[in-house]
Structure prediction request, 754 residues.
Amino acid sequence: MRTTRFRILSLVLALGLFVLAGCSAGPTSTTAGTTTAKPAAAIKIGGIGPLTGGAAVYGSSVANGAKIALEEVNALGGLQFELKFEDDEHDAEKSVNAYNSLKDWGMQILCGTVTTTPGIAVSAESFKDRIFTLTPSASSTSVIEGKDNVFQMCFTDPNQGIASAQYIAENKLGSKIAIIYNNADAYSTGIYEKFISEAAGKNLQVVSTTTFTDDTANDFNVQLTAAKNAGADLIFLPIYYQPASLILTQADAMSYEPKFFGVDGMDGILTMENFNTDLAEGVMLLTPFAADATEARTVAFVAKYQAAYNEVPNQFAADGYDCIYAIYEACKKAGITADMDAAAICDKMIAAFTAADFNIDGLTGENMTWAATGEVAKAPKGMVIEDGAYVGMQGGN
Amino acid sequence: MKLTKTGQKRLVSNSITYGMVVLAFILVQIVDSTGHLTSSLRGQLVPICAYIVMAVSLNLTVGVLGELSLGHAGFMSLGAFSGVIVSLGLRDMVGAGPLRLLAALLVGAVIAGLFGFVVGVPALRLRGDYLAIVTLAFGEIIKNVINTIYVGIGPDGLRVSMSDQASLGLGETGTVILRGPMGAVGVDKLASFGAGIILVLITLFIVLNLVHSRSGRAIMAVRDNRIAAESVGISITRYKLTAFIISAALAGAAGALYALNYSTVVARKFDFNTSILVLVFVVLGGIGNIRGSIIAAAVLTVLPEMLRAFNDYRMLAYAIILILVMLTSNNDRLKQLRWRFIARFRRGTPQQEVDHE
Prediction:
């Protein structure tokens, strides 16, 4: 009896596996291009980011954005590309594993990683192997430090901190500033440290600095009371939008109404479920991308993205989109073909990216150029939330 | 030298265990030299060694000592970060990579062993599941404390701060090793597969010899019947502590090996999930079965990578495979089949199953 039951159980489970395998090869598959393989050989781009786990929203957005760009580029009929996106669960070990398995696949250019810690581990490997790397959103300087073949599409964390301090000082947004940041998060801490040092030089008065960690991100009354008691009229939030939404809700509950100033992690707050977007009115943020901008390319991208994935793209999706276009333009300029090996492509791509006349107009910035260090130069956009939508801030640079 | 029958059996069993590891090493070298080793597998060789050491050392606590530890990753974390600090601190003084690796492994083991002592002294005096609770808390505390520590190296030596990077006061010439939540960055990749295999062999040597020694028998006596062990004059706490500290120290060495294989390491990696992962290796390999731990750690580390073809459903498939393994290994009918097979092979009467090898 037991063996029969066991046989049935294993059969069912094995069947389940096949069904799952079938599903994953369907529309949810992120290996774009494999189905639309052209007779002409395609340049193989590898992507790495978290598609499962707590940070999956960032990885999936980049993968989706990149996929849209890839289809557009391939439709132009010139250079053909193939993209394979591997999951790293936001973990350095898994990310290096993903990188190695992409290498076995024959990756020629790396578009990754999405998150910072895996990015540091993987860029060390791609530097050693001479594979050109363009990261959409790994924003720490450690990702590019000392590696001539690693470039960033996003601002570095320090740059965001400096830009925020300058923006607040130049536009006289607040006289007494409180900061609430996540001291267990590399992104948040990185911005905070540069903001503090820049604020000192700009004569900004920081009256309260409080912290939280991922484990304590469910109550901010202590931090808000400290800010209120110190008389802060502007709260700087270099954090992601999930905790920020709770801060806004709790500040409203204690009828404390300072100005709130966020960075690009704040993007996404308007599309958050179960959040009263009225509370976000007047919140200011520095972000390279706004989904409701009226610029033609952004409108087209948002429409395409919504049709394909049924959600509003965030800046990570835009970063992924821009990465593919930047790679495409550089490949075109450097005369790269699919039969070149990764090391040869790497040298040509570095030359193309750092060339004085190389610039990209993308969704996350116009006239983007790259320094030899790998840092991108683009202007941050100051946005303010009015009537549930981003509006360019007055005096924005 | 004359060996008793059990002694002979043990010699054969130990030789199989060591031989298996050496054979795996030789096989990989052969495949590598003929150019057939995929980058994917090559990249996993060092983590596999680290996880084998973790699993074998945890098996000492869970299988041989019979106490549940849910914070083994905490000791790994301590070993990882102290190993990284030592290896970077010695960069200017000691040129040779292997020497720095050795120093990192030793310091990692000593620091983790020390903390094993601190955790073990109060927890192991008690009966019941206290060690599980204390180690669980310990792992989380270590994670959160390391998240707030900043360590830098300047001209006048190491500097440590608990607030931020600026307060290290390193100036222009110093380098920051540990940056709080950003973890350690710019780690030199010193670990190699050869070093990993040597660490696995040393671990096996320590654990197998301990288990078959007088102390080992005392430890197992404590596990099987505490009152009986006490009645013949075995010091319960002493033997429990011995096993637990050795287990912690080996985890520390594994952590140092693991950390020195990547250019960055963060405290978040060594969380509760990693502790459970290692516990899964031990349980699936067979509690108390050292050889089983080695095989389970190696197979279950490689498995998620083999399942990459499943894309987003990879971890689901992984979980289903784990459940299937549990079901088959505990199925009476299959066990009988296996014994019958072994019996036919040996042409003798069915053997009793040996649980603790």
About this structure: Chain A touches chain B through 55 residues (CB under 8 Å).
